[in-house]
Amino acid sequence: MPRFDACLNIDELRRVARRRLPRGLFEYIDRGTEDEASLRALRRSFEDVPLVPRVLVDTSGRTLRTPLFGVERPLPFVVAPTAAAGLVRHDGEVLLAQAAKAAGVPFCVSTQSITSVEAIAASGAELWFQLYVWRDRTLTHDLLERVARAGVGTLILTVDTAVSPKREYNQRNGFGVPITPSLRGGLDVASHPVWLWTVLLRYLRTGGWPGYAHYPAEFHTRITDAAASDRVKLCDRVDWSDVAELRRRWSGRIILKGILSLADARRAAEAGMDGIVVSNHGGRNLDAAPAPLSVLPRIAGEVGHRLTVLADSGVRRGSDAAKLLAAGAAGVLLGRSMLYGLAAGGPAGAEHALALLGDELSRTMALLGCRSVADLRACRFGAVEAAGEPAVRPLTPVN
Ligand SMILES: Cc1cc2nc3c(=O)[nH]c(=O)nc-3n(C[C@H](O)[C@H](O)[C@H](O)COP(=O)(O)O)c2cc1C
Fold first, then answer.
1. What separation in Å is there between the alpha carbon of 338 and the centre of ligand 1?
2. Dist. CA 23–CA 14, nearest whole Å
């Protein structure tokens, strides 16, 4: 198996991750939902938009430094919240936070992380927290207070997951939360002894079976328990009144993640949100969802002056990130790329993923004639929706 630092791009890190992780876990991370149409559409959306360069521009002093929420950061990236990252490596969330800290970018802790926000905070990274509103609002609000006490200032409320999406491969693989014991799952784990020894057995040796750390003590079930309480399940009755309630309770920033329509983006601004993430959850939820790149220019153009517009889903190259930034995003969240890096090389592997994407972004900027992320964001995203527009809308730097 090649070492993580021999990997020259995210796809090569992915291939190492695939060999290292049990198939059920790898597919949980890697794949989409239902027929995986939105996953394919994501890739196509990046490939179909060319970037038209301006040449003979001195880009020797170019920088990736960029402000996000008033703080200057070395890279326009945020490590996205990913459930169960702690199964990829032992203490995976802590390792991701360490990598984020080393790169100077925020790390967003998932509600469904294996390690608690308090333990992750010890890494000293800038932590954001991603919230799923549970059926029991009192428990949800208790969690909020706990997160605030841990020193988190930025909350991401995920709004695109009213129910569990239909991911049939998880059922086939016997992977899910709760994990259902099966012969296939057992053989899968047994055929990955390094993962078994360094992750699962290490949890068992040091503290017990890995579970969801943010679930309240009385429901702090093991991940394999079938009887997770209804009170902490995903809720299909979350609406704008919950957003208003959170706005009253949370004094820090709130970002809504999973916005794809202009109407919802406007409503988020009216509800006093500080930001939105234009996202289709990495093609993992609604299989009919549009790719963020196709809706971002319109959304960022209309609400970008009222709140911070971030974007994610499908970024595997620096040029993908460049396209989201050129289409109006102020920053880009990275999900799977970070998990592939983490699987392949622990915190150094996750840092390697960030470095690869940063390097590719910098080269893309130089080849485009952009000296800064601001130059990139000033790119013209074609004449969006003009009549007679050619099918491919080029992005052109304006300098
Ligand atoms: C394994 C995995 C788990 C995820 N868990 C969560 C989660 O708990 N909360 C959430 O808001 N988004 C979650 N996401 C979505 C990511 O935050 C992000 O939107 C998505 O991964 C971006 O696409 P990318 O993976 O192609 O970069 C998860 C994604 C993956 C791959």
1. 10
2. 13
